[in-house]
Amino acid sequence: xxxxDLIKIEDDYFINTFTRQPVVLDHGEGVRxxxxxxxxxxxxxxxxxxxxxxxNHPKLVKAIQDQAAKLIxxxxxxxxxxxxxxxxxxxxxxxxxxxxYANSGAEANEGAIKLAVKYxxxxxVISTVDSFHGRTIMTLAATGHEEYHEPFKSVLPNGFINVPxxxxxxxxxxxxxxxxxxxxxxxxxxxxxxxxxxNYLKEIEAICKENGIVFIVDEVQTGFxxxxxxxxxxxxxxxxxxxxxxxxxxxxxxxxGILATEEVASAFVxxxxxxxxxxxxxxxxxxxxxxxxxxxxxFLDNVNEVGEYFIDELKKLDKDxxxxxxxxxxxxxxxxxxxxxxxxDKLREAGFLINCTAGNVLRFVPPLTITKADxxxxxxxxxxxx
Length: 386
Ligand SMILES: Cc1ncc(COP(=O)(O)O)c(C=O)c1O
Fold this sequence. Notes:
CATH superfamily of the largest domain: Type I PLP-dependent aspartate aminotransferase-like (Major domain)
Radius of gyration: 21 Å
Low-confidence stretches: none
Number of domains: 2
Strand order of the largest sheet: 4-10-9-8-7-5-6
Largest sheet: 7 strands, mixed
Distance between the termini: 35 Å
Shape: globular
Number of strands: 15
Bound molecules: pyridoxal-5'-phosphate
Structural class: alpha/beta
């Protein structure tokens, strides 16, 4: 079937939830993907900051193939070695003590909020304007976009308070004796690659400590090397009580999770939370490979070096349409003075996949394996198109 006929299947059969780019992708290699018509694209999007090791990574593919041939699924009722080995690796590499495996970012955030509520026995959660925490009913309530809430207002849970991002006074005003948790992205992704002031997270941490509030960092987008450290909260020198994760964790397989301190994690007992698929052997086999690569000698140094180079090169572009360039590691935003959708289309036609978020921010979240030469190729095309 050709591209037009395949896309028509979506029009005729799918529930209408996505505005997709009109390409049917077929295969990938490294930082490049190819559609069914043979057109190749430099992938500056990595499936929304997911394909951390790029496409067709030999070790990742082998681990998935080997594990698929052994055992794909067993449920949470039995132990499996990849999940146990991975848990120890990840927990030992962080300031957290315990893990819960989930299947997506939204599900991880659901579990994190439940844990904070159970731990504190309190009922309110503070989140930030322009945040994104997921599309389930509770994570939608936490997500700081009124327009997403509107059609579902009648069923959204109470107790979610939205305050402006990077505004510590707003948090101070919002807390009260019912506050269970503050959930925040260390750098807002969907909200437009918004990097907070250096002391913002530190001040949230202090407020949480003083008031017995659970500090949750949502690292679904920023985690797993995306910002040049294993997790972005490390950049701000904080030790949150809970961290949620997904996206890059498994290099493309659907997986998420929660990390928590011993103290907070102890609130859950069997029956409080669960999952059928979470922590399955297939996804954990993939996550082990991603973790080993991310923590291998020089990997994160390269993310930082290429990321800084990328931001410097973007800053050199002398265009009236550019309002701001910002980011950290390989999450980079180019804010325009006008809507960005037309540039997404023009870049795709020129062989580059990117996306636009918050209306006018071109967001670049390529595989972490991208090189300076790839960046040069992209910035040259962007320069011409802008
Ligand atoms: C910070 C953040 N949290 C949560 C989510 C939701 O993750 P998922 O789409 O895997 O449910 C996203 C997705 O973009 C995200 O960026």
